[in-house]
Amino acid sequence: MIADAVLVRLREIDPPTHIRFALVHAGRRDRNDARRGWRGLEEVRRWLVEEYPQLQHYRPPNGLTKVVKRDGRLVAFDRGKLERGIGIASKGRGTRDDVRQLASDVAVDVEREIGDQPVVTTGQIAAEILRSLRRRDPIAYLRYASTAKRFASPEAYEAEAVALRNVDYRDLR
Question: How far is CA 164 from each of CA 68, 87, 138, rounded to the nearest angstrom?
């Protein structure tokens, strides 16, 4: 079968692409023949260790350690940098201590939501920051959203402001 030959070749030349292809090919459950597809995560992990025996001894890091930047670079996660970015978006939204506390609270929210993943993208982090700021402060939210979503027009700000109008912040604190 062609897909099996592709899997063999990909394993030789590019293991990450090999695994992605296998997730599509071997992970399918919609076939009408003897190939049943992977039913769950344990079958995937069994396959991974069969294909890459060195994984038997690999222990992934606990918690959030790396961030994939927009340009593809992999950098260490830095909670201080996270809080500074939130603080910039929240500048003037209370006293310095209020802003520091907001930044810390939002960082806690972010880590609670994605902190069990060792590697995340900047997009995932931005989405969680926005989710938290949306509940806490509409102005800080709009400031951060304008950068994260790359607003390029007054209409983008207005559309976001209209969407925020229906949030009752007293109920979300």
Answer: 29, 20, 7
Give the confidence band of 167 by pLDDT, cuts at 50, 70, 90. low
Query: Is the pTM of the predicted complex or chain greater than 0.85?
Result: no
* 89 contacts: CB under 8 Å, gap ≥ 6: 133, 140, 141, 143, 144, 147
Cα 53–Cα 15–Cα 20 angle in degrees, nearest 5: 110
Domain ranges of the chain: 2-57, 66-172
94 dihedral zone (left: phi>0; alpha: psi -120 to 50; beta): left
